[in-house]
Amino acid sequence: MKDQVYNDGELADLNLKIDKQIVENLDIMSKTSGLSPADIVVIALKRYESCHADYMRVAPTLE
Predict the structure, then answer these.
(1) Cα separations in angstroms, 42 against 26, 39, 56, 62
(2) N- or C-end of the chain: fewer Cβ atoms within 10 A?
(3) What is the number of domains present in the chain?
């Protein structure tokens, strides 16, 4: 997992105000895993997105 590329397209900045504990946990996870905070956020958001396709207005296909 650590050798995969997560931010593999055109990059954009995203500035958020989020719970301080989440930011601290992200820092701990980054140091422990060796992944950048950006990669951890991208992984988490891609997983969330795949579980919530309805938020993206995408209907699942039954194949």
Answers:
(1) 12, 5, 16, 27
(2) C
(3) 1
